[in-house]
Amino acid sequence: MGPPRAASPAGAAVDATAGVRVTVSDRYVEIKNGIFELMLSNPDGIVTGVRYNGVDNLMEILNKEDNRGYWDLVWNPPGKKTGIFDVIKGTEFRIIYHDENQAEVSFTRNWDPSLEGKAVPLNIDKRFIVLRGSSGFYTYGIYEHKEGWPDFGLGETRVAFKLRKDKFHYMALADDRQRIMPMPDDRLPPRGQPLAYPEAVLLVDPINPDLRGEVDDKYQYSYEDQYNNVHGWMSFDPPIGFWQITPSDEFRTGGPLKQNLTSHVGPTTLAVS
């Protein structure tokens, strides 16, 4: 997210020195630090809301809560080539650590033999961290496969954020790769015409007429992992950004030349392994 400001457009004061607070209810876990507020579903661990700079929610409020900010994976049992898509939802919540300077929370989902063939044989622990004085949050996952559990293939695992289409229209991947983007509505008939495969759409009658005749395809925004350090979206009213920042490449597979998805029309931003 963007840098902290002295006050939000709505007039709510921002206190960059405030301590980190955690509020837990039956349905939500709310973490705030005086700069922004992170709302997570309890015990699923889905990012249902991010409040910042006077905007009540940077996530797409038109989407269902479990389709805003989430971890997912694609896996397959032995002998099957078709991957199974799974949005990872926790079943148990706990606070790992909390004081005025830091909060770390956990959402876990454990596997047992009764789930064989139905769920990926992993214990999964999704973590979220908020620090004092920071305008963003950290997230990481711990995947555990115990001895004797079934083999499986893991095609990919991701963190996906779907932002508000009424605010985020400008996308940036690098100094020389940034632009005003089409709207998601532009990809649907009659504004968009499907091409050879589902991801590629000809913009026949886009909302922004300057984009007429272009082809939108999320794969054209792929980036080699060695350069894929930060990408995201900007809003001009109010002036804020939402950025996916990669602290290291240790979780990635395929080497520095592998191309992965970054951000694309949605507005969507991804971290892919």
From TrEMBL:
CDD domains recorded: RGL4_N
Looking up Gene3D superfamilies in the UniProt record yields:
2.70.98.10
SUPFAM superfamilies in alphabetical order: Galactose mutarotase-like
GO biological process: one example: carbohydrate metabolic process
Q: Which GO terms describe its molecular function?
A: carbohydrate binding; catalytic activity
Query: Pfam families recorded for this chain?
Result: Rhamnogal_lyase
Q: Which InterPro entries has this protein been placed in?
A: Gal_mutarotase_sf_dom, GH-type_carb-bd, Polysacch_Lyase_4, Rhamnogal_lyase
The identity of this protein, by name, is: Uncharacterized protein
Record organism:
Panicum virgatum (Blackwell switchgrass)
